[in-house]
Write a structure and sequence with these properties.
The chain is globular. The chain has a seven-stranded mixed beta sheet with strand order 1-2-3-4-5-6-7. The protein has ten helices and seven strands. Helices cover 42% and strands 14% of the residues. The longest helix has 27 residues. The chain binds adenosine monophosphate, zinc ion and fe (iii) ion (2 copies). The site of adenosine monophosphate has 10 residues, from helix 5 and helix 6. The site of one fe (iii) ion has 4 residues, from loops.
Length: 285
């Protein structure tokens, strides 16, 4: 069993990097990818621990991108290590636009009569502050009873105080990742929210034409039927099938590392072997 999608306290998870490695070893994971949003700090903190424990730890990152007005999450794996200065600068720009979004979100929340400050919400996280940190703060201050309610009333796209984050176009992300030696994988395609199957496949097909290399076939938000469909897309558009739980600790309650929600995720080791072989055809295994 492996898990190729997880978050630590360096982004918006609640499990510290070292603790996540311990957890992975404890449940017998053969490989773990840390894919924090916009930062490698979690991976870098976990790497020595993983080395000591003999865990195959993979460096990844999750990026928010835009495609024709839609938000698309992209996972990038196997970037050259250490990542180039150009790649780091690109990530820094993303962190800056996130900070700007947070400033505006605090402003809108204040206007709505919610007493929160930027300092308070930033203290909830480490390297970056995401909406899950806002949600926890709103819960702690008694404005909402759950993370879901926080997104519904204040933070989500349909809430009046919602602020859109400035993010790069998907084509730009595909190019930057490829130039840094990495492979791009579309994360949780179910969340594209494209109901009509033909349109969904057409969308994935267009991304494949623009340099997408893989698709997250197995994910905690996807049913077995979804996974079967996405495996079909992978085959028809020459994409590498990948999978992971998107573990966030307490920020996604009921979702376990390695196995997802009620054991709805089970990613075999061969997926990673295949990814490595397809992503680095000349590389020794
Ligand atoms: P951000 O990157 O700061 O815009 O926050 C996005 C994160 O918020 C995503 O990675 C999700 O984990 C989380 N999120 C988005 N929508 C919801 C929701 N409706 N309920 C719970 N978590 C959500
Ligand atoms: Zn997250
Ligand atoms: Fe995501
Ligand atoms: Fe994620």
């Amino acid at each position: 069993m492996i898990d190729l999608h997880s978050h630590t306290t360096e982004s918006d998870g609640t499990t510290a990097p070292g603790e996540l490695v311990e957890m992975a070893v404890g449940i017998g994971l053969e490989a773990l990818a840390i894919t924090d949003h916009d930062t490698f700090d979690g991976y870098e903190a976990a790497a020595p621990e993983a080395c000591r424990a003999g865990l195959d730890l993979i460096c990844g990152i999750e990026l928010s991108t835009k495609y024709h007005g839609r938000t698309v999450h992209m996972l990038a794996y196997f970037l050259e290590a250490p990542p180039s200065d150009a790649f780091r600068a690109w990530i820094e720009a993303m962190l800056a636009s996130r900070r700007e979004r947070n400033r505006r979100l605090v402003h809108n929340l204040n206007e709505a009569g919610v007493d929160v400050s930027l300092g308070e919400v930033e203290a909830m996280g480490r390297r970056l502050t995401g909406r899950p940190h806002f949600a926890r703060l709103l819960m702690r201050k008694g404005y909402v009873g759950s993370v879901e309610e926080a997104f519904k009333r204040y933070l989500g796209e349909d809430a009046p105080s919602f602020v859109e984050r400035d993010s790069p176009d998907i084509e730009e992300a595909l190019d930057v990742v490829a130039a840094s030696g990495g492979i791009s994988v579309i994360a949780h395609p179910i969340r594209l929210g494209i109901r009509e199957r033909a349109r969904e496949e057409e969308f994935v097909c267009r991304l494949a034409g623009a340099g997408l290399r893989g698709i997250e076939v197995w994910h905690s938000d996807q049913t077995a039927t979804d996974s079967e469909r996405y495996l079909g897309y992978a085959r028809r558009h020459s994409l590498i099938p990948t999978g992971g739980t998107d573990f966030h600790g307490g920020n996604k309650p009921g979702l376990l590392l390695g196995t997802g929600r009620n054991q709805n995720v089970s990613v075999p080791r061969s997926v990673l072997d295949n990814m490595r072989a397809m992503a680095m055809p000349g590389a020794r295994q």
